Amino acid sequence: MLWSIEKRFSKGQFLCPTSSLLGYTKVDKKLAIEPEGAKTVKLIYSMFLAGYSANYIADTLTELGRTTGRGKTKWSSVSVRNILKNERYCGDIVAQKTFTKSYITHDHEVNKGQKQVYYSADHHESIISRDDYIQSLLLLSSNRNSNRLDVGYTLTVIKEGMLKGFVPINRAHGGYRVPHFVKVSKSAFNEDSENNIAGTVFNLPGYEVARIQEFANGDKAKMTLSNKWLRFNTSCIRNMPNAEYVEMLLHPIDRLIAVRPCSENNPNAILWKKVYKNRMQSTHVSSATFANLLYKLMGWKDEWQIEIVANCKNRDQDSILLFDLKEPIFKVKKTKKITDESDSANEEIESYTARLLPGEWRDSFGKQMVEHAYSNMNHDEHNERDWNISAEGIAVEGFEVKVKIKSEEDIRRQIEELQN
Length: 420
Prior knowledge:
By secondary structure, the chain is an alpha+beta fold. It has two domains: 2-147 and 403-419, Putative Large Serine Recombinase, Chain B, Domain 2 (Hect, E3 ligase catalytic domain fold, Alpha-Beta Complex), CATH 3.90.1750.20; 167-395, no CATH class. The chain is 24% helix and 26% strand. It is built from ten helices and 23 strands. It has helices spanning 2-10, 35-49, 54-64, 77-85, 130-140, 178-186, 234-239, 288-298, 369-375, 408-419, and strands at 24-27, 30-33, 93-95, 98-100, 108-110, 118-120, 156-157, 167-168, 208-210, 222-225, 229-232, 245-251, 256-262, 270-271, 274-276, 279-281, 283-286, 304-315, 318-324, 329-340, 343-356, 366-368, 394-395. Strands 8, 10, 11, 12, 13, 14, 17, 18, 19, 20 and 21 form an eleven-stranded antiparallel beta sheet that branches. The chain has a two-stranded antiparallel sheet with strand order 1-2. The protein is globular and about 75 Å long. The two termini are 47 Å apart. Residues 193-199 have low confidence and may be disordered.
C-alpha cells in the first residue's frame, strides 16, 4: 500500500481529501473552491498580514460564528496557524509531509528527509496569492509580541560606504535563514570585481599577528552572546557616547557584526544607553532568533558562550563598532565539587565559567601577516575613505515585499461581509 501510494505521488497523482480542508470541496475528483470557507481563509490572511496575532484572529472568528474545516465554531490559535502554513491555499501541494512509521501501530512521523517529498506548483485554483502565503510563513517565524516587528519587513543591503555588504537586522523578524543573508550580501558587489591587495600590504613572511584572545581584555569593549541573547558591555557604550539608539548589521560573508547609531523610529532600533542609579548599564538584547542565526552561521555549539572584542572606528563625531565573529573567545559553564575536609560527606557543587581554546591554536600565536591582511581587507583603513556609515539599506530583487497590506477599514469591510 505504501509503495503504491508513493508511486502515485511520483506520477503527480496526489491524495487530497477535503473533509477538513476549509475553503475547498471536490468536483469531479478535483479540488474546487467552496465560497463560504474561502471567505474565512481570506480574512485570516488579511488580518495576519496586517499585524493581528493568531489568538486575536481566532477570537474574532469565534465571535463571528465561522466554522473550522472540521465544522466547529470554536477557533484556536493553532487552527489559524495551520491554515497560514498550508500551501494548498496558494494552489500548490506538497505530498508526504508526514509518513506512517509503522503499519502495525499506524504511528505517524514528520518527514524531515527520511522519505521523498513530492511538490506540485499550481496544482489547483488558489484562494490566496503565493506572495501572501510566503509573507505569512516569514511572519510566523517572527516575534509577534515585539513592538519592533514590521509586517512589511524585507532584507536590504548597504551598497556603499564603510558598511558595504552589510545587512541591517530587525531582530523581531525570524523568517530568513543564513543562505538568504548570504545572497543579499553578495548582491552589493559585482560578481567579476575582486579586491586584489597583493603587493599593497606590509608583510613579513613567517611572522604572525598575535591573537587578541592571548591577552587580558577585561576593560575592552566587548560583545557577549549566547544562542538566546546578546550583551554589549559599558565600554562599548562609552565608545559611542552620543548614541541613544543603535542598529545592528550583519556581514554574513566576512562574518562581521556592525553596530551604528540610528534614530528611535528606526524599526531595527535598540535602546543603547541605560542608566541606573547614575551608573551606566550594559545593553542586554533579547534576540533568540538572531543569536540562533549567528550560531548556525558560525557552527557554534548551543552550550558555548561567546565573547568578541570590538574594533571601534571613528571619524569626526561619528563612531561604529565592528565585531569579528572569526575571532571569538569561547566560554562554557562547568561545575566542580567542593569538599569540606572536616566533613567529607558534605560536598557542594560550584558552577564556574571556563575559557575554551581550539586545539589547532597550540602551535601558533595567530595568523600569518598576509592572511590577517586578507581577512580584514574589506573593512580596514583601505576602505574607510568612503566612510558614509549612515548609508541606508537597499531592497534586493527577489526579497521585496509584494504583499498589499490591508488597512483596518478593508478588514472591517471583510468582517461585515461575513456578518451579512
